[in-house]
Structures
1.
Amino acid sequence: MTTQGTPESIDIRPVTAFDLALLGELHAAIFRAPWDQPWSAQSFAEILAMPGAHGWLLTSGETPLGFLLARFILDEGEILLTGIAPVARRRGHAARLMRVLIESARTAGLRTLFLEHAAGNEAAGALYGGFGFSRIGRRRAYYERRGGGREDAITLRCDLAGVRIPHQGGPLE
Ligand SMILES: CC(C)(COP(=O)(O)OP(=O)(O)OC[C@H]1O[C@@H](n2cnc3c(N)ncnc32)[C@H](O)[C@@H]1OP(=O)(O)O)[C@@H](O)C(=O)NCCC(=O)NCCS
């Protein structure tokens, strides 16, 4: 999937085994807070080896800018992790990855998507809220932070029959 006629040529494609090192580098560039846990190429390999695991990589030309990992099990799916390089944020890239995910989930016959994000992550809350995810719970002290401390997780659910697709008409529609 490639956008045409835009200043950036954005492509989203499934992750392959050749992308593992690159995903580790992208993760380090995205999750830079002192409390973030690093993910190595091996971490990505293990996640993508899980049954039902899917991954997509978003690139601009040759430059990788973001990724989304999810897992599909029967008629339910879970977003495991997504992120966009700091230099490329607020250009609709995470929304593009979400649209690819939702299209794939529907094609695979999924009915519901779940995810959790850190309670303090307002950008994530706004992104998923925009697609119609609604809050179903809070897990106290769910995330362990490097260097100590813990943070609550907010759990979200989206019924794919009623999903909203914001940014209609934009690239990759
Ligand atoms: C959250 C994240 C993935 C958003 O990526 P992005 O490409 O900048 O998001 P988009 O440009 O597609 O934005 C889509 C919508 O999300 C919301 N949003 C994104 N960033 C936001 C921010 N910093 N503050 C408030 N809302 C935000 C907005 O509603 C936005 O729509 P709009 O631009 O029309 O207002 C990105 O900030 C990121 O990688 N953060 C670090 C990693 C992370 O938190 N991952 C998610 C948890 S797993």
2.
Amino acid sequence: MKTLFIKGQNNKTSVLIGNSLNELTNYLTANTIIITDSKVNSLYSHYFNNYKIIEIGIGEKNKTLKTVIYIYEKLLEFEADKTTFLLGFGGGIVCDITGFVATTFMRGVRFGFVATTLLSQVDASIGGKNGVNFNGFKNIVGTINQPEFVICDPSTLKTLQSKEISNGFAEIIKHALIADFEMFKILQLNSKKALKLDTIIIESLIYQSIKIKSRIVNIDEFENHERKKLNFGHTFGHAIEKVYKFSHGQAVSYGIAIASKLSYKKGYITIDEYNSIISLLKLYKLPVKYNFDFNLLLESIINDKKREQDSISFILLKKIGEAHIEKISINELSLLIKE
Ligand SMILES: NC(=O)c1ccc[n+]([C@@H]2O[C@H](COP(=O)([O-])OP(=O)(O)OC[C@H]3O[C@@H](n4cnc5c(N)ncnc54)[C@H](O)[C@@H]3O)[C@@H](O)[C@H]2O)c1
Ligand SMILES: [Zn+2]
């Protein structure tokens, strides 16, 4: 088992990567309450049967303040107090909601995660961003607060559907593209093993991914500059997720394809680099092409609350393994995309 650390303003996280789920009880206090979703509960409750459990529904439609209120009510019913420890056991949705509830309930209680999807292990559980969607805006209500620990045990990935595994690879590929050319090559050479969750390959890719994200979060927890690079593929990704209701990982894959195309059009990466990115996404069974209505996507980007007046911080690639933050006006983006 390997450990990585994240040091936030309020908390320090130990991220445990490897076969660590059997030791879960060592990390929990007697007054732990589990937050999980119905599917994970049915598959993994043997790990947390001894604790009180709050179960939420499946899917992005449940990532709402309504679910948060439901959890607050259950916490009161369970007589939770300042000494309660909340454990989010599940994918990105469970982690994002648990982090938000733990940060706001009684002005903050201790919390940790067992991340059970590939996407949550390599991305959503890492870095302390939490929250819910509101009025059609993704993650618009939330906080940044680091959990005490994150357990990433690859054995939980075996019960995932293959589409969910591909979704996780969208964020792994993103990490390689923005920060690590060697990892890009490893991804190219080992796609079959990686998709089959070969223990050595998958564990090292999870470790490498978290290493990249945690290094960035340690530099810039509150996303003033460096952390923006992690949004590579997400400007269009979020718009696609919102307008076309694709899952996060699938939408990010399209978003990576579009941002890579723009990096090529702006003269940063070569056509060969662009083609190798598209081939890699396809190798991992991720979608790259769809007949999008770009006017609708641009409209969604313009309405996005993260825009800064008439421009956005767009993440481009200077080369494979190096990201670059560029302020692009909505006008320029619109011209580039319609070209
Ligand atoms: N906070 C962040 O920094 C951050 C980063 C990336 C993504 N996110 C968020 O993460 C969410 C997506 O996360 P996700 O892809 O994990 O989705 P998810 O939590 O919906 O999980 C996907 C599906 O897999 C099921 N599942 C979970 N673990 C399983 C297992 N071990 N075996 C079988 N099935 C299992 C779930 O029940 C669900 O149906 C989005 O809401 C996105 O906004 C947050
Ligand atoms: Zn993402």
